[in-house]
Design a protein that fits this description.
By secondary structure, the chain is α/β, with parallel strands linked by helices. It has a domain of 236 residues: TIM Barrel (Alpha-Beta Barrel), CATH 3.20.20.100. Helices cover 38% and strands 15% of the residues. The protein has a 7-stranded parallel beta sheet, covered by helices on one side. Strands 1-2 form a two-stranded antiparallel sheet. Helix 1 packs parallel to helix 11, helix 4 packs across helix 5 and helix 5 packs parallel to helix 6. The radius of gyration is 19 Å and the shape is globular. It starts with 8 loop residues before the first strand and ends in an 18-residue tail after the last helix. Bound molecules: NADP nicotinamide-adenine-dinucleotide phosphate. The site of NADP nicotinamide-adenine-dinucleotide phosphate (NAP) has 29 residues, from helix 11.
Length: 341
């Protein structure tokens, strides 16, 4: 049986924010995107999270079109006080058109989205409510303004944004304090370091790196991505997981494997240790949210918070992101990077 490492804690968004474990849990994959789901294993994984002190649980209304929030409801009913619950609004999907992704930030949408999330989750208050994607046509005064009203009404405790640029984060923060910025950040994805991370450090915003394992690629699980991704796995359409890109990217894992061996660790743990340590270069706090459907991996990931990479190891990993083949999304207009000048 894997022993349980209790992880350290940190406050989201500074001294007045909620205390969470330094690593959170991304619940998305327990409902869709990354292959078959197993509810019993997912429940066990959530229990393991609390055992390890992984208390920031991350979902979104769009994951499984509401199913991910609904799945969490019994867990929350049993453990509401032990969990810091984060969910998100803004990505609109349609049951009859799986490829459709709309982005809605207007105040009426914000108000109806929060009611739907509260109902599905079975809670009275959401601890951290994120705008999942920004619609640049809607000024922050309106969108974050509507989110701030939810704080005043007690429906939401703290606000977060996902995939915004540094200037956008500053503008939104002036409307209402932002506790957390959730953006992709890993050994393979470092565009967030261009402007958003610096703004977060200035403002005291905690960064919550999503896909810190590169959607699984950094774990070394994809020897032959085309063969390994079956059964409608969303990654089969991701540029980094397909064709020649996948082959080239797999070769980039050599230093990760070598460093893992030196620490008696796994490549996944080295990827997580890297993002945790990289944050200190920028003078900020991070709470990465790796996702897994398995108890043993949850505990393995939590144990990564105890690994410290040497300066020489960090230097060896430094060029990796610059060599990655393929964008992190098939349509990069879905990211903050597309709005950076
Ligand atoms: N804000 C946004 O736009 C956004 C976008 C994407 C994701 N997110 C959030 O971020 C969370 C994490 O991101 P993610 O799930 O996309 O990617 P990730 O955490 O980088 O990787 C998840 C993948 O890695 C595998 N994995 C996890 N731990 C492992 C280990 N120790 N060894 C081997 N394989 C391991 C998982 O497979 P198994 O399940 O088989 O373990 C899964 O396929 C999501 O759950 C979601 O909450 C947010």
């Amino acid at each position: 049986m894997t022993s349980v490492t209790r992880i350290d804690t940190v406050r989201l968004g500074g001294q007045d924010g909620p205390e969470v474990g330094v690593q959170g849990f991304g619940a998305m994959g327990i409902s869709e995107f990354y292959g078959a789901t197993d509810e019993a294993a997912a429940r066990d994984t959530l229990d393991a999270a609390l055992e390890a002190g992984v208390t920031l649980i991350d979902t979104a209304d769009t994951y499984g079109l509401g199913a991910n929030e609904e799945f969490l409801a019994p867990f929350l009913a049993a453990h509401r006080d032990e969990v810091v619950l984060a969910t998100k609004f803004a990505i609109e999907r349609r049951a009859d058109d799986p490829s459709h992704r709309g982005v809605r930030n207007d105040p009426a949408y914000v108000r109806s989205a929060v009611e739907n999330s509260l109902r599905r989750l079975g809670v009275e208050t959401i601890d951290l409510y994120y705008m999942h994607r920004r619609d640049p046509e809607v000024p922050f005064a309106e969108s974050v303004g509507a989110m701030a009203e939810l704080v005043r009404e007690g429906k939401v405790r703290f606000l977060g944004l996902s995939e915004v640029t540094g200037p956008e984060l500053r503008e939104a923060h002036a409307v209402h304090p932002i506790a957390a910025l959730q953006s992709e950040w890993s050994l393979f994805s470092r565009d967030v370091e261009r402007s958003a991370v610096g703004a977060a450090a200035d403002l005291g915003v905690t960064v919550v790196p999503y896909s810190p394992l590169g959607r699984g690629f950094l774990t070394g699980a994809f020897a032959d991505a085309a063969k390994d991704l079956q059964g409608g796995d969303f990654r089969a359409h991701q540029p980094r997981f397909t064709g020649e890109n996948a082959e080239r990217n797999a070769a980039l894992l050599d230093p990760v494997r070598k460093i893992a061996a030196a620490h008696g660790a796994t490549p996944a743990q080295i990827a997580l240790a890297w993002v945790q340590q990289r944050a200190s270069v920028h003078g900020l706090t991070v709470v990465p949210i790796p996702g897994t459907r398995k108890r043993s991996r949850l505990l393995e990931n939590a144990a990564a918070t105890r690994i410290t990479l040497t300066d020489a190891e960090l230097a060896e990993l430094e060029p990796v992101a610059g060599l990655v083949a393929g964008d992190r999304y098939p349509d990069m207009s879905f990211t903050a990077a597309s709005r950076e000048v």
